[in-house]
Amino acid sequence: MDAPRQPSGDAVAAECRPDRSELAAALASLGLAGPMPVLVLVGGAANLDPTVADPLRRTFESILPCLDRLGAALVDGGTAFGVMRLIGDVRRRHAARFPLIGVAASGTIDSETLPDSARVQHLSATAPDPRLNPGARLDPYHSHFILVPGVRWGDESAWIEATASVLAAGRPVLTLVAAGGQITRLDVSVALRAGRSLVVLDGSGGTADLLADAWRSGRDIPEIPSGPRERALVQFLDLAQAPRRLPEILARALGG
């Protein structure tokens, strides 16, 4: 099965300009008025290889107490695949309290899979185009969803960044990158252009490892800005060490 948020090149949409006042109203309606620190999770939406999934699960488990203690929110793409499914499952199993907010383009998801337990705001009622995708399942364990305009994978990328910015309202925002494909490269580009700090889990595969290799060798990745400003925003963390080190990194980055 093709992985949601990992399309071929002709299915990737150009960035759009989210309406931040509309987003602020949607978040307030969800009881998420902020300000609060925000962790943005971007990465692989495919079924993760066990050699990656197991350490990622331990990593996600390690950061739950920190997110709860800081009163932080986590924002991702909300589908029931890859890192998004994994963080939803981990949050459920450990009864974590932080808001887990899925931001998805309404024309890319199956709205029938919206969980009854989640609070939802619709900023668009675009129907999926079956020529582009059949509509992806949403993760049943996310606490909130914001459905935004768009029919192609990648239409949600700028909205994810904008949601984090509006929700933070001046509090810190950090982006965590795990594995990932073409859409993750777009997510990374959006975050870097916004001046966001990134923690990249080296050894998780895909875009995360591509970034690590390129940064070490001084190579550029065509669609990702990589000047001195951007390079200073990126921190690499070996996946094997992440369960031990990431909670401290989050506490420093989001506790300000």
Molecular structure report:
The chain is α/β, with parallel strands linked by helices. It has a single domain (19-250), classed as Rossmann fold (3-Layer(aba) Sandwich), CATH 3.40.50.450. The protein has 8 helices and 8 strands. It has helices at 20-29, 50-70, 82-93, 157-168, 182-193, 206-217, 228-233, 242-254; strands at residues 38-43, 73-76, 100-105, 119-122, 144-148, 173-178, 197-202, 234-238. The protein has an 8-stranded parallel sheet, with helices on both faces. The longest helix has 21 residues, at 50-70. InterPro entries: LSDAT_prok, TRPM. It holds the Pfam family LSDAT_prok. GO terms for molecular function: ligand-gated calcium channel activity. This is LSDAT prokaryote domain-containing protein.
Quick gist of this model?
This protein has 256 residues and is an alpha/beta fold. The chain has a single domain (19-250), classed as Rossmann fold, CATH 3.40.50. Helix content is 38%, strand content 16%.
